[in-house]
UniProtKB/TrEMBL annotation:
Upper classification of the organism: Eukaryota, Metazoa, Chordata, Craniata, Vertebrata
Identification of the protein by name: PCAT2 acyltransferase
Record keywords, A-Z: Acyltransferase, Lipid metabolism, Membrane, Transferase, Transmembrane, Transmembrane helix
A single GO molecular function term of this UniProt record: lysophosphatidic acid acyltransferase activity
Primary localization class, coarse: membrane
Membrane-spanning segments: 12-34
KW Lipid metabolism (keyword) present: yes
Gene Ontology terms describing biological process: lipid metabolic process
Family: Belongs to the 1-acyl-sn-glycerol-3-phosphate acyltransferase family.
Pfam family, one: Acyltransferase
Entries under InterPro entries matching the protein: Plipid/glycerol_acylTrfase
């Protein structure tokens, strides 16, 4: 009986997740289309709200479809309380749960991830701090960019 359920549920879950991923890509594309100051200026207004609501909701729904139910105990620190949000150890696809639950903050990511099809567009909409492994000054530049965003008095979203 459980094998039969798996045979039926697995394709349905894959189709639902693919559809949610397509919607997330579409939302990210619309929010960043003709974006002024692409990557150098923070998203504002409807663009930021769209990323926060659409991507957060789609990410939560995708994890629910995968069978994960996340309960949050307590309250995450707000942007004025903590402009830098630390989540560790970050090494798996579960990091996206933290992003969805905290309102889709900016993240620190490898620069190579931005060129990945579909996921790169979604990642770019989060306005990440890109780290280049080939650049010897990358570590210093990353720290400077995180500091600049943290000291922007709420213009940039939290950095995780």
């Amino acid at each position: 009986q459980t094998v039969l359920q798996g045979i039926i549920l697995l394709p349905l879950r894959v189709i639902c997740i693919a559809f949610l991923l397509l919607l997330a890509w579409l939302s990210a594309s619309v929010a960043t289309f003709c974006q002024p100051g692409r990557g150098f200026l923070p998203l504002k207004g409807w663009r930021r709200r769209m990323i926060q609501t659409a991507l957060s909701g789609l990410t939560r729904t995708a994890y629910f479809v995968m069978g994960f139910q996340v309960k949050v105990k307590g309250k995450a620190a707000s942007l004025p309380e903590a402009p830098i949000f630390v989540a560790a150890p970050h090494s798996s696809f579960f990091d996206a749960i933290i992003c969805a639950l905290t309102g889709m903050p900016s993240i620190v990511s490898r620069a190579e991830n931005l060129s990945t099809p579909v996921f790169g567009t979604i990642l770019s909409s989060l306005q990440p701090v890109a780290v280049s492994r080939q650049d010897p000054d990358s570590r210093k530049n990353t720290v400077a960019e995180i500091s600049r965003r943290a000291l922007s008095r709420g213009q940039w979203p939290q950095v995780i």
